[in-house]
Amino acid sequence: MRIPPPRVLTVAGSDSGGGAGIQADLKTMLALGTHGMSVVTAVTAQNSLGVQGAWPLPAEAVRAQFRSVVDDIGVEAVKTGMLASAELVETVAALLDEVTAPVVVDPVGISKHGDALLAASARDAVRTKLLPAATVATPNLDEVAWLTGVQVSSETGLRRAAEAVLSYGPRWALIKGGHLEGDAVDFLTDGVEEHWFRAPRHDNRHTHGTGCTLASAIAAGLAKGRSVPEAAAEAKSYVTGAIAAGFALGAGIGPVDHGWMSAR
Ligand SMILES: Nc1ncnc2c1ncn2[C@@H]1O[C@H](COP(=O)(O)OP(=O)(O)OP(=O)(O)O)[C@@H](O)[C@H]1O
Ligand SMILES: Cc1ncc(CO)c(N)n1
């Protein structure tokens, strides 16, 4: 009988367009040789043009999905994405305390189009309850700004951003410099080790789902037993390839190609 693949759980929102959220997470997990599972926190009506509607699920539904997965199947890594409200952030942080698996926290605040995916009233719970539960937190520069007040406009500021994020308690901070000019540079540190991940910027506007994809790829690597720096390196090359292969769908920003490593 076949040995089962490593099990990875995403706790995130659904993107009806299939490019970000739960859908991006599960595709990434499959592409990287793991078994993806999901706890849906919110349903969004979303496409290449933006988010047309969002409906958080009751906390009870989030708890029930999590327990169904953990109690029977088990998890080797968890990734969190859109959590919508303070109540859901607190619910998920409490559930994470029940597992020993490494946790990748993507502190999703707004979509690429600027639509809110997290209530402003939930930010404090992200800082004080969710970040302390993270093995790795993966904010972009906008998320660094609202989490910590630190504004970064160039590569040299990434170290300062990481220190500010680490002060909230995640074991590692991976600061995504994807929104800066020039190369796409990310900085990973635990306060001692420092790792820079640099990739050429792809001049491709079809980048819907980049952040979700990177965080899920890290979770997949951790589930496979990689160290955080090894998982981040593998995730960076996976997301870079997916961005290079991103394609137009709809009239706006199309998705990255999660299947870029498979023959078509
Ligand atoms: N045009 C690009 N070319 C190459 N790499 C990119 C590009 N844009 C972003 N990246 C990389 O993609 C990864 C995700 O970063 P990004 O800053 O896009 O995340 P995000 O803003 O959280 O995404 P999302 O909008 O999906 O929430 C990082 O490794 C970043 O460096
Ligand atoms: C559901 C969902 N999660 C995360 C993102 C990231 O931007 C998005 N656009 N939609």
Automatic annotation (TrEMBL):
<dbReference type="GO" id="GO:0008902">
    <property type="term" value="F:hydroxymethylpyrimidine kinase activity"/>
</dbReference>
<keyword id="KW-0808">Transferase</keyword>
<protein>
    <submittedName>
        <fullName>Bifunctional hydroxymethylpyrimidine kinase/phosphomethylpyrimidine kinase</fullName>
        <ecNumber>2.7.1.49</ecNumber>
        <ecNumber>2.7.4.7</ecNumber>
    </submittedName>
</protein>
<keyword id="KW-0784">Thiamine biosynthesis</keyword>
<dbReference type="InterPro" id="IPR013749">
    <property type="entry name" value="PM/HMP-P_kinase-1"/>
</dbReference>
<dbReference type="GO" id="GO:0008972">
    <property type="term" value="F:phosphomethylpyrimidine kinase activity"/>
</dbReference>
<comment type="function">
    <text>Catalyzes the phosphorylation of hydroxymethylpyrimidine phosphate (HMP-P) to HMP-PP, and of HMP to HMP-P.</text>
</comment>
<feature type="domain" description="Pyridoxamine kinase/Phosphomethylpyrimidine kinase">
    <location>
        <begin position="15"/>
        <end position="257"/>
    </location>
</feature>
<keyword id="KW-0418">Kinase</keyword>
<dbReference type="Pfam" id="PF08543">
    <property type="entry name" value="Phos_pyr_kin"/>
</dbReference>
<dbReference type="InterPro" id="IPR029056">
    <property type="entry name" value="Ribokinase-like"/>
</dbReference>
<dbReference type="InterPro" id="IPR004399">
    <property type="entry name" value="HMP/HMP-P_kinase_dom"/>
</dbReference>
<comment type="pathway">
    <text>Cofactor biosynthesis; thiamine diphosphate biosynthesis; 4-amino-2-methyl-5-diphosphomethylpyrimidine from 5-amino-1-(5-phospho-D-ribosyl)imidazole: step 3/3.</text>
</comment>
